[in-house]
Amino acid sequence: MFKTTLHNLARDDRGATAIEYGLIVAMIAIACIAAFDKLGNGANGSLAGVMGKIGSVLF
User: How many domains does the chain divide into?
Assistant: First the structure.
């Protein structure tokens, strides 16, 4: 009986699609976070440089 139950569980793939979609969403989220972090640091440095130049002209 236990062997039959394990065999049936091994062959059951009803939740496979949901798990695959979950993994795809997780990978996309990780890629977006990495891209936003990289772009955010670059934009922050550029903005700081522009603000410094504007501040030196005004004051």
Answer: 1
Q: Which two tokens stand for residue 7?
A: 């065999």
Tokens 């039959």 — which residue?
4
Nearest to 50 by CA among 2, 25, 42, 21: 42
Q: Which domain holds residue 21?
A: 1-58
- pLDDT tens sequence across 1-56: 788 887 887 777 777 788 888 899 999 999 988 887 877 766 767 777 888 878 78
Task: Look at the pTM and tell me if it is higher than 0.85.
Answer: no
As given in the structure block, the two tokens for residue 52 are 């410094």
